[in-house]
Amino acid sequence: MTGPVLILGAASDIARAVARAFAAKGHAIQLAARDAVSLADDKADLETRYGVAVSLHRVDALDLTSHAGFVAGLPALPEIVVCAIGLMGDQDENAADMARATVILRSNFEGPASLLGHLANAMEARGSGTLVGISSVAGDRGRASNYIYGSAKAGFTAYLSGLRNRLARKGVHVVTVLPGFVATKMTEGLDLPKPLLAQPPEVARAIVAAVEKGRNIIYVRPTWRLIMAIIKAIPEPLFKKTSI
Predict the structure, then answer these.
(1) For residue range 187-209, what is the model confidence (pLDDT) as tens digits?
(2) How far apart are CA 156 and CA 134, in angstroms?
């Protein structure tokens, strides 16, 4: 058996695929979500299918005061943490209602950053560990179509970069994952280009490979690196006239 893997936001489609991928490698799994009870079937499936220990934990990303206690209450400090917490919402609704926008900002940046901050401190004290943050290509440049979600992810990407720099000589590695479009409940109903649409197991395999190979920043599909490089290179006067 290898060290435990903590999945934050474990009820998402990507998180479930990540849990299976690490369980297949023999890792004990800690599933954490706001409604941990709903993960009972996932727990039973992982234990039966892969023969690993699985524990369930309640965590509320937006309740910042609970995060230190959550980390302290884990049965063991994980070897690997994968943060899959996120909420997209609807851009038009978010722009019209700042209360909605605030929830998106906190769900994609403040909450995940707080949780990873507590875990980073514990791993630094131990001298080992890997933190994986699932961010988004939407954070590479603010665009009218999703700038509230994208700006939160931009903050999260910068946070992961700084955390990686801080912990580089402390035995703790930080991985930033930029999946691009993924076929999940969060993107259901959106008109997305099928050639760029990844499946959750593909994202999970990329995350496992990034952890094993010590990579820093990964675009799940390399095409996204080129796409976003082009988008970032568009001069601002011209960019303002686009609707991407």
Answers:
(1) 766 667 677 888 999 999 999 99
(2) 9
Distance CA(5)–CA(80), nearest Å, equals: 5
* Non-local CB neighbours of 164 within 8 Å, separated by 6+ positions: 173, 174, 176, 216
pLDDT at res. 184: 78
Q: For position 189, what pLDDT does the model report?
A: 66
Say if pTM beats, i.e. exceeds, 0.85.
Answer: yes
- Rounded CA gap, 31 and 41, in Å? 12
Q: In what order do the strands lie in the sheet with 80-83?
A: 54-58, 27-33, 2-8, 80-83, 129-134, 172-178, 217-219
Cβ neighbours for 48, distance < 8 A, ≥ 6 positions apart = none
CATH class, 2-239 region: alpha beta
Query: Active-site residues: which are they?
Result: 149
- Cα separation values, 206 from 47, 66, 71, 129, 134, Å: 23, 31, 26, 18, 11
pLDDT tens track for 116-140: 999 999 999 999 999 999 999 999 9
Which residues on adjacent β-strands are paired with residue 175? 132
- Two tokens at 186? 């969060």
